[in-house]
Design goal:
Blueprint (H helix, E strand, L loop, with lengths): L1 H15 L9 E9 L4 H18 L3 E8 L6 E8 L2 H12 L2 H10 L6 E11 L16 E9 L4 H18 L3 E8 L9 E8 L2 H13 L1 H10 L6 E13 L7
Antiparallel strand pairs: 1-3, 1-4, 2-3, 2-8, 4-6, 5-7, 5-8, 6-7
Helix pairs in contact: 2-4, 5-7
């Protein structure tokens, strides 16, 4: 009987897509701002060289995206490593790889491709699905959402997601790719939750969130969780719709 129960629990854990144990990998979200007119060249370098060289040096390519409204010529991508130490070792080896230096020099013959680059180190939350490259059966858009919690309220915000929000997102047809929190102080605060949703379209996302906001279960959970004040700062919720690049392992 005990063996049967264990098998059932294991099967349920696998079928829901959630890791049986906390995902302890080091994640990194990198945002590149391409120089004017250079985004296509930057994407070509990733497609033809960078992605393969990352893999060569032990990095896991999770996903690559560009915003639907890309006024800043951005490329956003997420990598995974066994640990922060492994990350440093891989990047050091990548940076000194002759194939990378040849590709970089050739691609920048007419100027640098990247104007600015940002990096955020992340840890998966305990309620995140196992973050891994995946491809949807239908075309979809990805929504990158960033919540800046009220100081001291991040744990309460995470609890609301863990106990209520995540389940209600699923109820209203939203796919959930992953949830993370930064591991280092950036811009003076670590009170941040970053996550990515999947929708059929921006219009579908709007309809899903409208139904979510009107759900009595959400109203009840929100009211209870904010009895002592809001969990996010004013204008602290940011959203950006993205589409996967043609070379992204996640689509």
């Amino acid at each position: 009987m005990k063996l049967l129960i264990l098998l059932i629990v294991s099967a349920l854990t696998f079928s829901t897509g959630f890791a049986a144990e906390k995902d302890t990998r080091c994640f990194e979200m990198r945002t590149y701002y391409a120089a004017p007119g250079k985004l296509d060249d930057l994407l070509a370098r990733f497609r033809d060289h960078t992605v393969k060289l990352f893999e060569k040096h032990g990095m896991v390519n999770i996903g690559y995206w560009v915003p639907l409204t890309n006024t800043e010529n951005k490329l956003v991508y997420i990598m995974a490593y066994p640990s922060r130490e492994a990350r440093e070792k891989s990047w050091k080896e990548f940076s000194s790889d002759p194939d990378w230096n040849t590709a970089r020099k050739a691609s920048e013959a007419n100027g640098n491709l990247v104007k600015k680059a940002d990096s955020v180190f992340l840890a998966a939350t305990d309620f995140s699905a196992l973050v891994q490259p995946s491809q949807s059966k239908e075309s979809c858009v990805f929504e990158l959402r960033t919540y800046h919690a009220t100081p001291g309220k991040l744990d309460d915000l995470l609890a609301r997601f863990r106990d209520h929000t995540k389940e209600l997102f699923a109820k209203h047809g939203m796919g959930q790719f992953g949830y993370w929190v930064p591991t280092e102080t950036k811009d003076g605060s670590t009170d941040t939750l970053i996550y990515i949703l999947q929708h059929k379209s921006p219009e579908a996302a709007k309809a899903s969130f409208k139904a979510f906001a009107a759900d009595p279960e959400w109203t009840k959970a929100k009211t209870a969780s904010e009895a002592n004040g809001p969990l996010t700062i004013k204008d602290g919720v940011k959203s950006e719709f993205m589409t996967a690049t043609d070379f992204s392992p996640t689509k």
